[in-house]
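Write out the 3D structure for:
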Amino acid sequence: MSTYGIDLGTTYSCIARLDSNGNPEVIRNNEDDSNTVASVVFFENENNVVVGQAAKENVETDGDRVVQFVKREIGKRDSRVYEFDGKTYTPVEISALILTRLKNLVEAQGGTIEDVVITVPAYFGLEERSATKQAGELAGLNVLSLINEPTAAALSYCARQFQEDRTILVYDLGGGTFDVTVVKMSMAQNASGNDVQKITVLATGGDDRLGGKDWDDRLYNHILHACCDDNGLTPEEIEAETRQDIRSKVEEAKRKLSKKQSAKVRIDVNGSRTEITVTRKDFENMTSDIVAKAMNFVDATLEKVPAEAIDTVLLVGGSTYMPMIKNAVEAKFPGKVQQHDPDQAVAKGAAIYASMLVEEVGGVSSEGGETSGDETAHAEQLTSKFTVEDQTPRSFGPGVVDTTGAKHKYVLENFIKIGEKMPAVFTKTYYPLEDNQERVLLRAFENRSTDDTLIPCVDEDGNPQATDPAHYVKLLGELVVNLPPNTSRDTPIKVTFKVDASGVHVEAVNTKTNETFETFLRTESDIDVERSAVHQLRISSD
């Protein structure tokens, strides 16, 4: 069965596969005459849910029944739950509807889809990644793995023109998320002893709530207020249909400004035609702070890999078509900037990675028939060339009691730190806090710090805390380790964390009984454990 790569985007999504020659190709959306599907869902009524461009056209007129930009909410603890016609929908379920639409594109063209790789922003944490995987499963897909969007783009670029020993900065500005990632292209030997092209992630940064939508919103507000000024109205007096007309023309105007110095927008306001002229300079002035914000993330990433080490800069994501983006990046890296297949590179790279994860010998082609030997050979020839070494998106570790000082304190020990090679594994031995404990409660945390420990990481009610808001400490889950009667406080409990692209595996072993307890952490939703200090593990054996 053929495998597919999916770029689940904030504003547009895309799906790709390898063709019979082993080259990545995007599945065309014939309904919208496009290579993408708008990531918008319109709940018209209880019997009809619309996904795509047709849904997007109802944003202003029926906005209370339209959901968009859900990628900014998926996996977030403050995300809303939507209710339509007596049914509730989480961001995971909304995302599943978008993925189902992509699946239907394949099936409408005679293909069969099951195994997929879905892309995520490099800066997504565990909960966002887990929620994305759950959305794929809910859509009836077998999610082989997740891959960071910039890594997928680099893989697509590598497939076209591999250049050994090159350091590449991927500037990935999508509709709602922004990633900046530095990768190294080199030659290496795989497990079979064959030479392969290796992509190693060296550094990553970004913001999963920064993207083209922010530029759209500025342009929308500019045109809205210009219409108000020309007609002596306040924004509140502009009708919903007029707002929808403005919203629908913002994207078109933005595209025009990427090619021309000015764009005219004609809007009907209360029966009167209003013509607004927006110049590229106007647009650049009203959004200059957003450009600067994105470049600040580039500068932060260059603290890990110096600018002089960068050989090539790839512009990825539809929002990089804006000249202001290319100009800002070019000013930082003169003569090094390339624009590589901005709308499709991520999906194509995911398709390559998906094929790397499965054996295609005797498989099923995308047209539903058996693949020929030549087709299999072509696919294997491409996917066997590469190996990908990615990084952990966050730091991970347990919360334990430090008894080494005069006063006991609860600390988060960072086992695995942000930026380490994945999969990452770390093991350490701890001990029960007191004699005769019936169980110990092992908490697993995620954060953005590279410190060995954080103090404090929870308050007296068990809520995650940090000494600095920048650490973003999150409680991922808890593992209960049951202890036999008369367990002494000197009983070693060996704790292991393993992090890969799909989640965090936590294992605790009572070394005296060899009893093992383990969990695969994906969300915090199942946590319902009494949080008492007596149940904790401690660092020292003293």
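DSSP finds eleven helices and 29 strands in the chain.
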